[in-house]
Structures are given as C-alpha cells and as structure tokens.
Amino acid sequence: MSGPSSVRESDPVLDALDGILAAARENIVSWVGVMERVEEIREQRRQGIAYTEMKIEGSTPLIIDTVARNQERLGTAAATLRRSLAHALFAEGMSHADIGRIFGVSRQRVGMLLRNEPEPHETPHDDV
After folding, report:
1. If you compute the radius of gyration of the chain from its CA atoms, what whole number of angstroms results?
2. Which end of the chain has less Cβ packing within 10 Å, N or C?
3. Which distant-in-sequence residues (6+ apart) come within 8 Å of 90 by Cβ?
4. With contact defined as beta carbons under 8 Å apart, do 69 and 127 qualify?
5. Rounded distance between C-alpha atoms, residue 90 and residue 66, angstroms
C-alpha cells in the first residue's frame, strides 16, 4: 500500500476537491442572487402585487433554473470526486467491497465507478 510520501505531483483526488471548492464558490454567488430575488418577490407580495404582474422573466435567471444549475454543478463535482477517490483507494490496495462500505454502495457500483460508467444523474437527456 502506498503512503502519503508517494503522493504524485498530479493528484486526481485533490483536483476533484478543487472542483468541489470551485462549484461551492460558484453556488454561493448564485445563492446570494436567489436570496435577493426571493426578498424582491416577498416585498412585491407585501405590496399586494399579483404574481402575474411581477417581472418573473427578465435579466435575472429564474429561481428554479438557478437551483437546478447549482444542483447540477455540485452533482458533477461530487461524481468526479467519487470516481477519483474510488480509483485512489483501489490503487492503494482496497477491495471493491471495502470501497463500497466507505461509499455506502455495492461492490458492483464500485466496479462501475472504476470503469468510469456514468452516474445515474449523468445519463444523457434531451432538453425540451
């Protein structure tokens, strides 16, 4: 089993953690926009303005679209981390079953991760 002293210059797990950090930072900016928009809507409702009279569309992305993008961004980053970590643990001598116990998945699912098969939420879909 390799120890920390054998960490390569390029470390896919650390790269994936950087991806999580970048996604989280982008999401923070997005969430601030969502919170501001929610307060705008609350204020308009307090003023008695109907939803049909509010500027739902406009330069600000819809709240639901922002939430979906944030979830997708984190989901993609998490999938990359999961795969990278599975590869690292396997390379350091852990079995599929051991990795599965750590991740809370079956050893078959670990095999899929190690073969870089898509995550369930990564399946291609048509945008309508």
Report:
1. 21
2. C
3. 96, 99, 110, 114
4. no
5. 36
Helix (H, G, I), strand (E, B) or coil at 60: coil
| Placement of tokens 């399946």 in the chain | 123
Pseudo-torsion of CA 38, 43, 46, 51, nearest 10°? -60
Q: What is the DSSP letter of 123?
A: S
Predicted TM-score (pTM) of the model is: 0.75
Residue type, 92: E
How far apart, in whole angstroms, are the C-alpha atoms of residue 9 and residue 44?
54
pLDDT score, position 8: 56
DSSP 122: G
